[in-house]
Amino acid sequence: MTNLATFAAGLPKAELHLHIEGSLEPEQMFAFARRNAVAIPYADVEAVRAAYAFNNLQDFLDIYYAGADVLRTEADFRELAAAYFARCAADQVVHTEIFFDPQTHTARGIPIGTVIEGLLAGMADAQAEHGISSSLILCFLRHLDEADAFATLEAARPWLDRIAGVGLDSSEQGHPPSKFERVFAAAAELGLKRVAHAGEEGPPAYVTEALDLLKVDRLDHGNRSLEDPLLVARLARSGMTLTVCPLSNLKLCVVPDIDAHPIDRMLRLGLRATINSDDPAYFGGYVNDNYRAVAASGRLTRDDFVTLARNSFLGSFLSDADVARHLAAIDAYAAAHP
Ligand code: HPA
Ligand code: ZN
């Protein structure tokens, strides 16, 4: 590892774009399948990994939703979270805002409470064992309709005081943010933060819709914003956080290779970009694997990595006092590693 990659890996950081179902490693998939007597269409762990070759987002989603079928009990969700938090601890991720997809589970007859209670238990364990803080972001599946999203928000009501915000994920093309304008307005009324995947595969107009119609506090991916200079200027001026996922972009063919990833351009344009893992079990690595991959591509400086780590807290939903505390820890780390 280069000095730069080692420096980046050691920085205290937050993760703002992580689908907990996407942290299901093949080994755990087999363990849960056995425990819950669920059949999976793979002979062994190697066969699972071999299936993780994707040409686009939909290729991935098909396999990702199939994999989630092994998750059945509160204990499964708690252990899934525990495995992810162990990776956070190893990667100096001290705070994480976790996406979960209730509809992936409720459609299979798993009560939303099973999902949420399991995750909350795992989050409490992580706070106690690793000192890692976390919150939950409930994502609506955009390939489903508005009524289904409203029903999901309603089902989550008993837990809304434990949920930081709502998000929007799944198949982007053909499912513009406008489809969910009313449900995001309802979420805002309930005091929830709002984020949305936009501009991963969808056009810059979807990013504009996420801003204007969903009134998002943060933008997930946002890569295709770069095609529209006026949109870039708007995002930079407003200090909008982009949760960028380099290895995900590589695996889903959003970029042709890691050396072509625009993370350096985003920073030069004044965008508040962050680095995240998205679905680490499927895309070849956790947060520090992403930091190391962009470090290896040689276009970022030491100051850029400090900026990326700072942005991860600045873009979080933590209190100002907590953000200040984490920024001070970054300064201390940078000072101790000249
Ligand atoms: N994009 C859209 N939906 C998703 C993703 C993603 O990268 N990961 C999990 N669901
Ligand atoms: Zn994502």
From TrEMBL:
InterPro entries: A_deaminase_dom, ADE, Ado/ade_deaminase, Metal_Hydrolase. It catalyses: adenine + H2O + H(+) = hypoxanthine + NH4(+). Its cofactor is Zn(2+). Keywords: Hydrolase, Metal-binding, Nucleotide metabolism, Zinc. GO terms for cellular component: cytosol. Its EC number is 3.5.4.2. Binds 1 zinc ion per subunit. The active site is at 200 (proton donor). The record marks 221 as: Important for catalytic activity. Residues 12-327 form the Adenosine deaminase domain. GO terms for molecular function: adenine deaminase activity; zinc ion binding. It is an enzyme of class 3 (hydrolase). One of its GO terms (biological process) is adenine catabolic process. It holds the Pfam family A_deaminase. Substrate binds at residue 279. Zn(2+) binds at residues 17, 19, 197, 278. Belongs to the metallo-dependent hydrolases superfamily. Adenosine and AMP deaminases family. Adenine deaminase type 2 subfamily. Catalyzes the hydrolytic deamination of adenine to hypoxanthine. Plays an important role in the purine salvage pathway and in nitrogen catabolism. This is Adenine deaminase. It comes from Sphingomonas prati. The lineage of its organism: Bacteria, Pseudomonadati, Pseudomonadota, Alphaproteobacteria, Sphingomonadales.
